[in-house]
Write a structure and sequence with these properties.
The chain has 443 residues and is an alpha+beta fold. It folds into two domains: 3-210, PmbA/TldD fold; 216-237 and 345-441, no CATH class. Helix content is 23%, strand content 38%. It contains eleven helices and 19 strands. The protein has a six-stranded antiparallel sheet. Strands 7-14-15-16-19 form a five-stranded mixed beta barrel. A five-stranded mixed sheet has the order 10-9-8-13-18, with helices on one face. Strand 5 and strand 6 (181-190) form a beta hairpin. The protein is globular, with a radius of gyration of 24 Å. The termini are far apart.
């Protein structure tokens, strides 16, 4: 599409400031089951959105047909949308920043990996899993996927940005059975470097994780010291990350309203939002509005230092934007989201924390985050499983338990932080966390 022609035509129609966001995605995914291809998909999608000010209101529209024939449709769509919108928020088109950090987000060598190599990797993982132990009954999920995304952001104020990124991941889950007890376990590799996709190590990790859960027992209810696995801590933080959105603070949808520069967590806790993190899933040199991104401390030594801002919320709060305006796709309105948010790792190893806790529970998995966690109050009640910690070592696996507390209370009860920061296939990460106590419901 001729962007110059689009902007000129839109200006003649009475649209003052305007912005084009163009996205092209190339996706590959394949699943293998019993050494056969269970599903296979290769797709390319392309789309464009136009955002513009008409009579003081910001209108939006988009199209998947990216050529000049859509110019009139886009202009009419913006005018219509602006005419009926009831939102009083004063959005703006951004003129841009003086400097943008150049990031290495695109890995051309990933594009050279053939479909056959990806499929052979999956078949190898499945075969090794099944042969590692007779108790492995099936590899119930064996997936490889990769995506390449090219984004272009241009506006009538001279902003002209683009970035290209790609990533890949594999997800494998196994089912093991012994004495009529069934257990599943899954693991993920997230890396643009295909040499990291080593079938033997992934298969061993998944199978060992499943077998370790066999022989689970039930425990009596009570209050226990708890060690949250790094991935569990990350999942809970991700579910609660919207509490840090300035838009949610404005709308009274965050328990953090009015708590800037207050101590809201243990002094041990530091949470960072780093859009420049190497290999980060949320890494970007600019956000969805064209604001230059930068690393920032969200919580420093337990003190809340900032909310995450778009241009509009930054203006409302009288602060600088933080580069957290986010668009999920060309079809989406602008929201606020973290980039790569994570809890800074401590110095303690996992084994050291287990030894210090002495007697408690190691939580390795939680379920029901969407239904069992209130993102405004922070209250949660989640089904969970894990292992007893007894005399400073991991003992019997436990399941059919529920952990309950309040997210903001848990932040204050952190007594130790591990050095094992983990992201999996997510822009939110964490190390393992030693929590003073959680309510655990069992028998």
């Amino acid at each position: 599409m001729n962007f110059k022609k689009l902007f000129e035509s839109a200006s003649q129609a009475g649209i003052t400031d305007m912005e084009v966001y163009l996205v092209e995605d190339e996706n590959f995914s394949c699943k293998v089951f019993e050494q056969e291809i269970d599903s296979y998909s290769v797709s390319t999608t392309k789309g464009l959105s136009l955002r513009g000010l008409y009579q003081g209101k910001m209108g939006y529209t988009y199209t998947e047909n990216v050529d000049d024939s859509e110019i009139d449709f886009l202009i009419k769509g913006v005018i219509h949308n602006a005419s009926i919108i009831e939102n009083d928020d004063k959005e703006e088109i951004y003129e841009g920043c003086a400097n943008y950090t150049t990031l290495d987000l695109y890995h051309p060598e990933l594009e050279e990996i053939s479909a056959a190599e990806k499929i052979n990797f999956l078949k190898s993982v499945e075969s090794i899993c099944l042969n590692l132990d007779s108790r492995v009954k099936s590899v119930n999920y064996c997936l490889f996927a990769n995506e390449t995304r090219h984004e272009i952001l241009k506006n009538s104020k001279g902003l002209d940005l683009q970035q290209k990124r790609n990533y890949a991941y594999a997800y494998v889950s196994v089912l093991v059975t012994e004495n009529d007890e069934n257990k599943t376990y899954a693991s993920i590799i997230f890396d643009a470097d295909f040499t990291k996709y080593e079938p033997k190590s992934l298969a061993k990790k998944v199978v060992t994780g499943a077998l370790d859960q066999l022989g689970s027992i039930k425990i009596k209810s009570g209050s226990f010291p708890v060690l949250l696995k790094n991935t569990v801590a990350a999942q809970i933080l991700e579910a609660m990350s919207e509490s840090f959105s300035a838009e949610n603070v404005q709308k009274d949808l965050s328990n953090l309203k009015g708590k800037l520069n207050e101590e809201i967590a243990s002094p041990l806790l530091n949470i960072v939002d780093d859009p420049h993190l190497k290999k980060g899933m949320g890494s970007a040199s600019f956000d969805g509005e064209g604001v230059a991104t930068f690393p920032k401390e969200v919580i420093a030594n337990g003190v809340l230092k900032t909310y995450l801002h778009s241009l509009a919320t930054a203006k409302a709060f009288g602060v600088a934007p933080t580069g957290n305006g986010f668009r999920a796709s060309f079809k989406s309105n602008l929201t606020i989201s973290p980039s790569n948010m994570y809890i800074k790792p401590g110095e303690s190893t996992f084994d050291k924390l287990v030894g210090v806790i002495q007697n408690g529970i190691y939580i390795t998995d939680v379920q029901g985050l969407h239904a069992g966690l209130n993102t405004i109050s922070g209250d949660f009640s989640l089904s969970a499983r894990g292992f007893l910690i007894k005399d400073g070592s991991l003992q019997t696996p436990v399941d059919e338990i529920t952990i309950a507390d309040n997210f903001f209370s848990v932040l204050q009860k952190i007594k130790g932080i591990g050095n094992d920061l983990e992201f999996e296939a997510s822009p939110v990460g964490a190390p393992c966390l030693w929590i003073k106590s959680l309510t655990v419901s069992g028998e």
